[in-house]
Specification:
Layout lengths: L2 H24 L17 E3 L3 E5 L14 E5 L9 E7 L5 E12 L6 E9 L5 E9 L6 H4 E3 L2 E5 L4 E8 L7 E12 L8 H20 L1
Antiparallel strand pairs: 1-4, 2-3, 3-11, 4-10, 5-8, 5-9, 5-11, 6-7, 6-10
Helix pairs in contact: 1-3
């Protein structure tokens, strides 16, 4: 193998390594974020009015976000205050993006449901993110139940960050709120090439090698 081809293969190897690092950085840190297990595996349920249920139980047949299950708040007209919680491994000083899908189902229009979303340092309980989202959606089918798709960025202050999703709705009578598709991954870094960039780099190296072989 000539030196030029060795350089090409070395370039591809380096590119593959960078691609694997970039993919790992974008991997979802949340366990069971779409509740596809049909259980609360990975989550801590706080309070009596939150559960993981089949959509079909709520008259919402089919799947959403690749799952036939969702987390429901306020069922059986129970009061708000219940929460879902999960701690994830983080790196201090690193920024992360949190996204999720939220909505409600009701036979009545404009029954507002609200969710308080917080991220805290697990060791110190210091707050690093606090956002409240509200939906007046009253969809009774899956494709209209989920009406909010928030995305937030937070910077970790320690090796573990705890995420809380707490129902703070003023009323839960004749309306239920749903949460699913929870995703947390490291925010995109300009120091890690995107896959498209790596592909172009590889093609360029191949072009250089082919040109030298023709000379």
């Amino acid at each position: 193998m000539n030196k030029t081809l060795k350089k090409v293969f070395a370039g591809f190897a380096a590119g593959a390594l960078l691609f694997s690092i970039a993919s790992a950085a974008r991997a979802n840190l949340i366990t069971n974020g779409n509740f596809a297990t049909g259980t609360s595996a990975g989550w801590t349920l706080i309070g009596p009015a939150v559960a993981v249920v089949p959509y079909a139980t709520w008259g919402l047949p089919g799947t959403y976000a690749g799952s036939a299950y969702g987390a429901v708040y306020g069922f059986s007209n129970q009061a708000s205050g219940s929460a879902l919680r999960q701690a994830i491994a983080t790196t201090a000083g690193t920024s992360y993006t949190l996204s999720f899908d939220y909505g409600s189902t009701s036979i009545y229009a404009n029954f507002i449901q609200s969710l308080l979303v917080t991220a805290t340092d697990t060791a110190t309980s210091a707050n690093i993110l606090s956002q409240t989202v509200s939906t007046a959606g009253s969809g009774t089918t899956l494709n209209t139940t989920y009406t909010l798709f928030p995305s937030y960025t937070f910077t970790a202050t320690g090796s573990s960050t705890t995420l809380n999703f707490t129902d703070v709705s003023a009323s839960t009578v004749s309306v239920d709120a749903f949460l699913t598709n929870v995703v947390v991954n490291a925010a995109a870094s300009s120091s890690i090439p995107e896959p498209e960039t790596l592909a172009l780099l590889g093609l360029g190296l191949l072009g250089i090698a082919a040109g030298r072989r023709r000379k």
